[in-house]
Amino acid sequence: MKISTPLTEEVIEKLHAGDRVLITGTIYTARDAAHLRLANLIKDNKELPFDITNQIIYYVGPTPAKPNQVIGSAGPTTSYRMDPYTPLLLKHGLKGMVGKGDRNKEVKEAIKKYKAVYFCGIGGTAALIAKSIKKAKIIAYEDLGAEAIRKLEVIDFPAIVVNDIYGNDLMMDNIKKYKVEE
Amino acid sequence: MRYIDRDLIVENVEKLCIDACYSIGDEILKALQKSKDKEKSAIGQDVLSQIIENDLIAREDYVPMCQDTGIVIVFLEIGNEVHIDYDIYDAINEGVKNGYEHGYLRKSVVRHPFDRVNTKDNTPAVIHTKLVTGDKINILVAPKGGGSENMSLVKMLTPSDGYEGVKKLVIDTVFNTKGKPCPPIIVGVGIGGSFEKAAIIAKEAVMRPIEDSSPDEIAKKLEDELLHEINKLGIGPMGFGGTQTALAVKVNVHPCHIASLPVAINIQCHAARHKEVTI
Fold this sequence. Notes:
The complex is a heterodimer.
Chain A: E1 2-4, H1 9-14, E2 20-29, H2 32-43, E3 56-58, H3 86-91, E4 96-99, H4 105-113, E5 117-120, H5 126-130, E6 133-140, E7 149-163, H6 170-178
Parallel strand pairs in A: 1-2, 2-3, 3-4, 4-5
Antiparallel strand pairs in A: 2-7, 5-7, 6-7
Chain B: E1 2-3, H1 6-22, H2 26-38, H3 42-61, E2 71-79, E3 82-83, H4 88-102, E4 126-132, E5 137-144, H5 146-149, E6 153-157, H6 162-177, E7 185-193, H7 195-206, H8 217-230, E8 246-256, E9 261-268, E10 275-278
Parallel strand pairs in B: 1-3, 2-4, 7-8
Antiparallel strand pairs in B: 2-5, 5-10, 6-9, 7-9
Helix pairs in contact in B: 1-4, 2-3, 6-8
Protein backbone atom coordinates (compact mmCIF):
# COMPACT_ATOMS: atom_id res chain seq x y z
CA MET A 1 0.00 0.00 0.00
CA LYS A 2 1.32 3.41 -0.98
CA ILE A 3 0.93 6.25 1.50
CA SER A 4 2.13 9.83 1.57
CA THR A 5 3.04 12.39 4.20
CA PRO A 6 1.79 14.33 6.07
CA LEU A 7 -0.37 11.51 7.45
CA THR A 8 -4.12 12.06 7.59
CA GLU A 9 -6.59 10.50 9.98
CA GLU A 10 -8.23 8.83 7.00
CA VAL A 11 -5.01 7.03 6.04
CA ILE A 12 -4.17 6.11 9.63
CA GLU A 13 -7.58 4.47 10.01
CA LYS A 14 -6.84 2.29 6.99
CA LEU A 15 -3.52 1.00 8.35
CA HIS A 16 -3.45 -2.37 10.08
CA ALA A 17 -0.61 -4.29 11.74
CA GLY A 18 1.14 -6.39 9.09
CA ASP A 19 0.46 -4.00 6.19
CA ARG A 20 3.47 -3.30 4.04
CA VAL A 21 3.64 0.32 3.05
CA LEU A 22 5.71 2.45 0.70
CA ILE A 23 5.99 5.99 2.06
CA THR A 24 6.41 8.99 -0.24
CA GLY A 25 6.89 12.56 0.88
CA THR A 26 8.76 14.30 3.68
CA ILE A 27 9.93 12.47 6.78
CA TYR A 28 12.16 13.75 9.58
CA THR A 29 15.02 11.98 11.31
CA ALA A 30 15.58 12.07 15.06
CA ARG A 31 17.14 9.63 17.48
CA ASP A 32 18.35 9.58 21.09
CA ALA A 33 19.96 13.00 21.70
CA ALA A 34 17.57 14.83 19.37
CA HIS A 35 14.58 13.32 21.17
CA LEU A 36 15.89 14.57 24.50
CA ARG A 37 16.16 18.08 23.07
CA LEU A 38 12.68 17.97 21.48
CA ALA A 39 11.13 16.77 24.73
CA ASN A 40 12.89 19.52 26.69
CA LEU A 41 11.61 22.18 24.28
CA ILE A 42 8.04 20.94 24.70
CA LYS A 43 8.40 20.91 28.50
CA ASP A 44 9.69 24.49 28.39
CA ASN A 45 6.84 25.59 26.08
CA LYS A 46 9.31 26.53 23.35
CA GLU A 47 8.95 26.14 19.60
CA LEU A 48 10.25 22.94 18.00
CA PRO A 49 12.78 23.17 15.13
CA PHE A 50 10.10 21.76 12.80
CA ASP A 51 6.34 21.34 13.00
CA ILE A 52 5.73 17.73 14.00
CA THR A 53 1.97 17.89 13.36
CA ASN A 54 0.90 14.88 11.26
CA GLN A 55 4.54 14.03 10.52
CA ILE A 56 6.63 10.86 10.62
CA ILE A 57 9.90 10.63 12.54
CA TYR A 58 12.44 8.07 11.33
CA TYR A 59 14.83 6.81 14.01
CA VAL A 60 18.10 6.83 12.10
CA GLY A 61 21.66 8.02 12.30
CA PRO A 62 23.00 7.64 8.76
CA THR A 63 26.59 7.12 7.71
CA PRO A 64 28.22 10.15 6.04
CA ALA A 65 27.27 10.54 2.36
CA LYS A 66 29.98 9.83 -0.18
CA PRO A 67 30.52 12.64 -2.74
CA ASN A 68 28.08 11.05 -5.22
CA GLN A 69 25.40 10.22 -2.65
CA VAL A 70 22.36 12.04 -1.18
CA ILE A 71 22.78 10.23 2.11
CA GLY A 72 24.92 7.37 3.37
CA SER A 73 23.52 4.05 4.55
CA ALA A 74 20.36 4.72 6.54
CA GLY A 75 18.62 1.83 8.29
CA PRO A 76 16.41 2.11 11.39
CA THR A 77 17.81 2.13 14.92
CA THR A 78 16.21 0.34 17.88
CA SER A 79 13.07 2.21 18.95
CA TYR A 80 12.76 1.36 22.66
CA ARG A 81 15.34 4.03 23.53
CA MET A 82 12.87 6.63 22.26
CA ASP A 83 9.98 5.20 24.34
CA PRO A 84 10.38 7.71 27.21
CA TYR A 85 9.82 10.63 24.79
CA THR A 86 7.29 9.22 22.31
CA PRO A 87 3.97 9.71 24.19
CA LEU A 88 4.80 13.41 24.63
CA LEU A 89 5.55 13.84 20.93
CA LEU A 90 2.36 12.00 19.98
CA LYS A 91 0.40 14.28 22.30
CA HIS A 92 1.84 17.23 20.39
CA GLY A 93 0.76 15.99 16.99
CA LEU A 94 3.31 13.46 15.75
CA LYS A 95 1.51 10.72 13.81
CA GLY A 96 4.11 8.16 12.80
CA MET A 97 7.42 6.62 13.82
CA VAL A 98 9.72 4.31 11.89
CA GLY A 99 12.22 2.20 13.83
CA LYS A 100 12.91 -1.39 14.73
CA GLY A 101 11.94 -3.62 17.64
CA ASP A 102 8.94 -3.59 19.95
CA ARG A 103 7.63 -0.59 21.95
CA ASN A 104 6.59 -0.37 25.60
CA LYS A 105 3.06 -0.33 26.95
CA GLU A 106 2.90 3.45 27.35
CA VAL A 107 3.84 4.03 23.70
CA LYS A 108 1.29 1.49 22.47
CA GLU A 109 -1.42 3.15 24.59
CA ALA A 110 -0.45 6.58 23.26
CA ILE A 111 -0.60 5.27 19.67
CA LYS A 112 -4.22 4.28 20.26
CA LYS A 113 -5.11 7.42 22.22
CA TYR A 114 -3.62 9.94 19.78
CA LYS A 115 -4.35 7.92 16.63
CA ALA A 116 -0.84 7.33 15.36
CA VAL A 117 1.06 4.44 13.84
CA TYR A 118 4.35 2.66 14.50
CA PHE A 119 6.16 1.31 11.48
CA CYS A 120 9.25 -0.88 11.35
CA GLY A 121 11.92 -0.88 8.74
CA ILE A 122 14.11 -3.93 8.37
CA GLY A 123 17.04 -3.41 10.70
CA GLY A 124 20.43 -3.42 9.06
CA THR A 125 19.15 -3.01 5.50
CA ALA A 126 20.68 0.43 5.39
CA ALA A 127 22.11 0.30 1.87
CA LEU A 128 18.77 -0.83 0.46
CA ILE A 129 16.65 1.72 2.34
CA ALA A 130 18.99 4.59 1.37
CA LYS A 131 17.95 4.08 -2.25
CA SER A 132 14.46 5.42 -1.45
CA ILE A 133 15.84 8.66 0.03
CA LYS A 134 16.04 11.29 -2.70
CA LYS A 135 16.96 14.40 -0.71
CA ALA A 136 18.43 14.98 2.74
CA LYS A 137 19.05 18.24 4.55
CA ILE A 138 20.12 18.90 8.12
CA ILE A 139 17.55 21.27 9.65
CA ALA A 140 18.55 21.21 13.33
CA TYR A 141 21.20 20.13 15.84
CA GLU A 142 24.09 19.92 13.38
CA ASP A 143 26.38 19.59 16.41
CA LEU A 144 24.94 16.12 17.01
CA GLY A 145 26.52 14.78 13.81
CA ALA A 146 24.82 11.51 12.84
CA GLU A 147 22.08 12.36 15.35
CA ALA A 148 21.20 15.74 13.80
CA ILE A 149 17.61 16.25 12.63
CA ARG A 150 17.35 15.83 8.88
CA LYS A 151 14.47 16.55 6.56
CA LEU A 152 14.27 13.71 4.07
CA GLU A 153 12.35 13.51 0.82
CA VAL A 154 11.54 9.86 0.18
CA ILE A 155 9.91 7.92 -2.61
CA ASP A 156 8.54 4.45 -1.86
CA PHE A 157 10.35 4.15 1.46
CA PRO A 158 9.61 0.55 2.61
CA ALA A 159 8.11 -0.13 6.05
CA ILE A 160 5.72 -2.48 7.83
CA VAL A 161 2.89 -1.44 10.16
CA VAL A 162 3.58 -2.92 13.60
CA ASN A 163 1.24 -1.04 15.97
CA ASP A 164 -2.02 0.43 14.68
CA ILE A 165 -4.80 2.50 16.27
CA TYR A 166 -6.84 -0.64 16.90
CA GLY A 167 -4.37 -2.04 19.41
CA ASN A 168 -3.01 -4.70 17.06
CA ASP A 169 0.64 -5.58 17.48
CA LEU A 170 2.25 -7.43 14.59
CA MET A 171 5.23 -8.57 16.66
CA MET A 172 3.41 -9.85 19.72
CA ASP A 173 0.66 -11.48 17.66
CA ASN A 174 3.04 -13.21 15.23
CA ILE A 175 5.47 -14.32 17.94
CA LYS A 176 2.55 -16.11 19.62
CA LYS A 177 1.65 -17.67 16.30
CA TYR A 178 5.11 -19.11 15.63
CA LYS A 179 6.02 -20.03 19.20
CA VAL A 180 6.40 -23.80 19.50
CA GLU A 181 4.94 -25.11 22.77
CA GLU A 182 5.74 -28.57 23.99
CA MET B 1 63.10 -11.27 16.26
CA ARG B 2 61.10 -9.72 13.46
CA TYR B 3 60.46 -6.01 13.27
CA ILE B 4 56.95 -5.01 12.20
CA ASP B 5 56.56 -1.52 10.84
CA ARG B 6 54.01 0.83 12.43
CA ASP B 7 52.63 1.94 9.06
CA LEU B 8 51.73 -1.66 8.29
CA ILE B 9 49.54 -1.80 11.40
CA VAL B 10 47.85 1.53 10.59
CA GLU B 11 47.16 0.60 6.95
CA ASN B 12 45.84 -2.85 7.76
CA VAL B 13 43.48 -1.64 10.49
CA GLU B 14 42.10 1.03 8.14
CA LYS B 15 41.41 -1.57 5.47
CA LEU B 16 39.89 -4.05 7.94
CA CYS B 17 37.45 -1.43 9.29
CA ILE B 18 36.22 -0.54 5.80
CA ASP B 19 36.10 -4.13 4.49
CA ALA B 20 34.22 -5.36 7.54
CA CYS B 21 31.52 -2.68 7.18
CA TYR B 22 31.13 -2.96 3.38
CA SER B 23 31.23 -6.69 2.89
CA ILE B 24 29.65 -9.38 5.02
CA GLY B 25 31.61 -12.64 5.19
CA ASP B 26 30.66 -15.37 2.70
CA GLU B 27 29.90 -17.80 5.50
CA ILE B 28 27.40 -15.37 7.07
CA LEU B 29 25.75 -14.82 3.71
CA LYS B 30 25.50 -18.60 3.27
CA ALA B 31 23.99 -18.95 6.75
CA LEU B 32 21.40 -16.24 5.97
CA GLN B 33 20.45 -18.04 2.76
CA LYS B 34 20.10 -21.33 4.62
CA SER B 35 18.02 -19.61 7.26
CA LYS B 36 15.73 -18.16 4.57
CA ASP B 37 15.18 -21.62 3.10
CA LYS B 38 14.21 -22.94 6.54
CA GLU B 39 11.99 -20.01 7.60
CA LYS B 40 8.32 -20.93 7.88
CA SER B 41 6.73 -17.47 8.07
CA ALA B 42 6.18 -15.54 4.83
CA ILE B 43 7.10 -12.22 6.44
CA GLY B 44 10.25 -13.82 7.87
CA GLN B 45 11.28 -15.08 4.45
CA ASP B 46 10.68 -11.64 2.99
CA VAL B 47 12.81 -10.03 5.71
CA LEU B 48 15.65 -12.48 5.05
CA SER B 49 15.45 -11.82 1.29
CA GLN B 50 15.82 -8.11 1.95
CA ILE B 51 18.70 -8.65 4.36
CA ILE B 52 20.52 -10.74 1.73
CA GLU B 53 19.72 -8.20 -1.02
CA ASN B 54 21.05 -5.43 1.23
CA ASP B 55 24.30 -7.29 1.86
CA LEU B 56 24.79 -7.78 -1.87
CA ILE B 57 24.05 -4.09 -2.61
CA ALA B 58 26.59 -3.07 0.06
CA ARG B 59 29.28 -5.18 -1.60
CA GLU B 60 28.48 -4.02 -5.09
CA ASP B 61 27.97 -0.32 -4.37
CA TYR B 62 30.86 -0.39 -1.88
CA VAL B 63 28.85 1.19 0.97
CA PRO B 64 28.23 0.19 4.60
CA MET B 65 25.66 -2.63 4.92
CA CYS B 66 24.35 -1.04 8.14
CA GLN B 67 24.30 2.60 9.22
CA ASP B 68 25.57 1.56 12.64
CA THR B 69 29.20 0.99 11.81
CA GLY B 70 29.82 0.34 15.47
CA ILE B 71 32.50 0.79 18.06
CA VAL B 72 35.60 -1.07 16.93
CA ILE B 73 36.53 -4.17 18.90
CA VAL B 74 40.04 -5.45 18.19
CA PHE B 75 41.42 -8.84 19.14
CA LEU B 76 45.15 -8.43 18.93
CA GLU B 77 47.64 -11.31 19.10
CA ILE B 78 51.30 -10.46 19.30
CA GLY B 79 53.98 -13.10 18.79
CA ASN B 80 56.79 -13.20 21.35
CA GLU B 81 59.37 -12.94 18.55
CA VAL B 82 57.92 -9.69 17.24
CA HIS B 83 59.81 -6.49 17.87
CA ILE B 84 57.91 -3.21 18.00
CA ASP B 85 59.32 0.08 19.27
CA TYR B 86 56.12 2.14 19.15
CA ASP B 87 52.76 2.27 20.90
CA ILE B 88 50.74 -0.37 19.03
CA TYR B 89 47.44 0.82 20.55
CA ASP B 90 48.12 4.25 19.18
CA ALA B 91 48.81 2.73 15.75
CA ILE B 92 45.56 0.76 15.85
CA ASN B 93 43.58 3.84 16.80
CA GLU B 94 45.18 5.76 13.93
CA GLY B 95 44.03 2.98 11.59
CA VAL B 96 40.50 3.18 13.00
CA LYS B 97 40.48 6.96 12.57
CA ASN B 98 41.62 6.69 8.94
CA GLY B 99 39.20 3.88 8.17
CA TYR B 100 36.18 5.72 9.55
CA GLU B 101 37.14 8.93 7.76
CA HIS B 102 38.15 7.52 4.38
CA GLY B 103 35.45 4.85 4.39
CA TYR B 104 32.59 7.27 5.13
CA LEU B 105 31.70 5.21 8.18
CA ARG B 106 29.55 6.61 10.99
CA LYS B 107 31.44 7.87 14.02
CA SER B 108 29.50 6.51 16.96
CA VAL B 109 31.89 6.83 19.89
CA VAL B 110 31.45 9.43 22.67
CA ARG B 111 34.34 10.43 24.93
CA HIS B 112 32.45 10.04 28.21
CA PRO B 113 29.35 8.01 29.12
CA PHE B 114 27.77 11.07 30.72
CA ASP B 115 28.83 14.13 28.74
CA ARG B 116 28.40 12.13 25.50
CA VAL B 117 30.52 14.36 23.28
CA ASN B 118 31.39 12.54 20.04
CA THR B 119 35.13 11.93 19.52
CA LYS B 120 34.44 12.47 15.79
CA ASP B 121 36.88 9.77 14.64
CA ASN B 122 35.34 6.66 16.22
CA THR B 123 38.31 6.20 18.55
CA PRO B 124 39.26 4.79 20.91
CA ALA B 125 38.81 1.18 19.87
CA VAL B 126 38.30 -1.50 22.52
CA ILE B 127 41.44 -3.63 22.25
CA HIS B 128 42.03 -7.07 23.76
CA THR B 129 45.63 -8.25 23.61
CA LYS B 130 47.09 -11.72 23.83
CA LEU B 131 50.75 -12.66 23.82
CA VAL B 132 51.36 -15.77 21.71
CA THR B 133 54.39 -17.61 20.34
CA GLY B 134 55.85 -16.81 16.92
CA ASP B 135 56.94 -13.80 14.88
CA LYS B 136 53.59 -12.54 13.65
CA ILE B 137 50.84 -10.17 14.69
CA ASN B 138 47.21 -11.14 14.15
CA ILE B 139 44.58 -8.40 14.14
CA LEU B 140 40.87 -9.15 14.16
CA VAL B 141 38.64 -6.11 13.73
CA ALA B 142 34.95 -6.36 14.63
CA PRO B 143 32.80 -3.21 14.35
CA LYS B 144 30.05 -3.81 16.93
CA GLY B 145 26.70 -2.06 16.65
CA GLY B 146 24.90 -0.62 19.66
CA GLY B 147 21.51 -2.19 18.95
CA SER B 148 22.62 -5.76 19.52
CA GLU B 149 25.33 -4.98 22.08
CA ASN B 150 22.70 -3.26 24.26
CA MET B 151 20.85 -6.57 24.51
CA SER B 152 23.86 -8.37 26.03
CA LEU B 153 24.43 -9.08 29.73
CA VAL B 154 26.70 -10.55 32.38
CA LYS B 155 25.06 -12.38 35.27
CA MET B 156 26.62 -14.11 38.24
CA LEU B 157 24.73 -17.36 38.77
CA THR B 158 25.56 -19.82 41.55
CA PRO B 159 26.84 -23.38 41.09
CA SER B 160 23.41 -24.73 42.09
CA ASP B 161 21.84 -22.97 39.09
CA GLY B 162 23.96 -25.27 36.91
CA TYR B 163 23.39 -26.23 33.30
CA GLU B 164 19.64 -25.67 33.40
CA GLY B 165 20.04 -22.28 35.05
CA VAL B 166 22.38 -21.12 32.31
CA LYS B 167 20.02 -22.43 29.65
CA LYS B 168 17.06 -20.59 31.14
CA LEU B 169 19.02 -17.35 31.41
CA VAL B 170 20.03 -17.45 27.73
CA ILE B 171 16.53 -18.31 26.50
CA ASP B 172 14.87 -15.66 28.69
CA THR B 173 17.39 -13.05 27.57
CA VAL B 174 16.81 -13.77 23.89
CA PHE B 175 13.04 -13.83 24.35
CA ASN B 176 13.03 -10.48 26.11
CA THR B 177 15.05 -8.81 23.35
CA LYS B 178 12.64 -9.87 20.57
CA GLY B 179 13.28 -7.83 17.40
CA LYS B 180 15.50 -5.20 19.02
CA PRO B 181 18.94 -6.70 18.22
CA CYS B 182 18.15 -7.43 14.52
CA PRO B 183 17.54 -11.18 14.40
CA PRO B 184 18.46 -13.65 13.07
CA ILE B 185 21.15 -13.25 15.70
CA ILE B 186 24.28 -15.10 16.70
CA VAL B 187 24.36 -15.74 20.45
CA GLY B 188 27.79 -15.81 22.08
CA VAL B 189 27.76 -17.35 25.55
CA GLY B 190 30.72 -17.23 27.92
CA ILE B 191 30.51 -19.46 30.99
CA GLY B 192 33.04 -19.58 33.80
CA GLY B 193 36.28 -17.73 34.50
CA SER B 194 35.39 -14.60 36.43
CA PHE B 195 33.10 -11.63 35.93
CA GLU B 196 35.19 -10.10 33.14
CA LYS B 197 36.53 -13.36 31.68
CA ALA B 198 33.01 -14.59 30.97
CA ALA B 199 32.31 -11.43 28.95
CA ILE B 200 35.50 -11.71 26.89
CA ILE B 201 34.98 -15.37 26.03
CA ALA B 202 31.35 -14.62 25.10
CA LYS B 203 32.58 -12.06 22.60
CA GLU B 204 35.29 -14.44 21.36
CA ALA B 205 32.52 -17.01 20.86
CA VAL B 206 30.71 -14.67 18.47
CA MET B 207 33.87 -14.52 16.32
CA ARG B 208 34.04 -18.30 15.88
CA PRO B 209 33.28 -19.74 12.41
CA ILE B 210 29.51 -19.99 12.08
CA GLU B 211 29.47 -23.67 11.21
CA ASP B 212 31.81 -24.93 13.95
CA SER B 213 30.96 -26.59 17.27
CA SER B 214 32.64 -26.29 20.63
CA PRO B 215 35.33 -28.96 21.18
CA ASP B 216 33.99 -29.25 24.74
CA GLU B 217 31.31 -31.92 24.86
CA ILE B 218 29.00 -30.21 27.37
CA ALA B 219 29.35 -26.84 25.66
CA LYS B 220 28.53 -28.42 22.30
CA LYS B 221 25.41 -30.02 23.77
CA LEU B 222 24.37 -26.63 25.17
CA GLU B 223 24.96 -24.96 21.78
CA ASP B 224 22.72 -27.47 20.01
CA GLU B 225 19.98 -27.36 22.62
CA LEU B 226 19.98 -23.57 22.86
CA LEU B 227 19.80 -23.08 19.08
CA HIS B 228 16.87 -25.47 18.94
CA GLU B 229 15.07 -23.81 21.87
CA ILE B 230 15.70 -20.25 20.66
CA ASN B 231 14.29 -21.01 17.25
CA LYS B 232 11.12 -22.28 18.92
CA LEU B 233 10.47 -18.91 20.61
CA GLY B 234 8.58 -17.57 17.58
CA ILE B 235 10.51 -14.27 17.39
CA GLY B 236 11.74 -14.79 13.82
CA PRO B 237 13.66 -12.39 11.55
CA MET B 238 13.49 -8.82 12.95
CA GLY B 239 10.96 -9.99 15.53
CA PHE B 240 8.12 -10.14 13.00
CA GLY B 241 7.39 -13.74 13.96
CA GLY B 242 8.93 -16.90 12.57
CA THR B 243 11.16 -19.87 13.12
CA GLN B 244 14.60 -18.37 12.41
CA THR B 245 15.57 -16.28 15.42
CA ALA B 246 19.22 -17.35 15.67
CA LEU B 247 21.75 -18.37 13.02
CA ALA B 248 24.00 -19.96 15.64
CA VAL B 249 24.73 -20.27 19.34
CA LYS B 250 28.38 -20.40 20.38
CA VAL B 251 29.33 -21.41 23.90
CA ASN B 252 32.83 -20.87 25.30
CA VAL B 253 33.74 -22.25 28.73
CA HIS B 254 36.57 -21.51 31.16
CA PRO B 255 37.60 -22.89 34.59
CA CYS B 256 36.13 -20.97 37.51
CA HIS B 257 36.03 -20.59 41.32
CA ILE B 258 34.23 -23.21 43.45
CA ALA B 259 31.68 -20.59 44.48
CA SER B 260 31.06 -19.12 41.03
CA LEU B 261 29.10 -19.58 37.84
CA PRO B 262 29.52 -16.38 35.82
CA VAL B 263 27.58 -16.25 32.55
CA ALA B 264 27.88 -13.64 29.81
CA ILE B 265 25.61 -13.40 26.81
CA ASN B 266 26.79 -11.36 23.86
CA ILE B 267 24.20 -10.81 21.18
CA GLN B 268 25.35 -10.30 17.61
CA CYS B 269 22.98 -9.02 14.91
CA HIS B 270 22.77 -10.53 11.43
CA ALA B 271 25.41 -8.06 10.27
CA ALA B 272 28.09 -10.19 11.94
CA ARG B 273 31.07 -8.14 10.85
CA HIS B 274 34.60 -9.19 11.47
CA LYS B 275 37.72 -9.27 9.33
CA GLU B 276 41.23 -10.30 10.28
CA VAL B 277 44.76 -10.24 9.01
CA THR B 278 48.04 -11.87 9.96
CA ILE B 279 51.08 -9.68 9.50
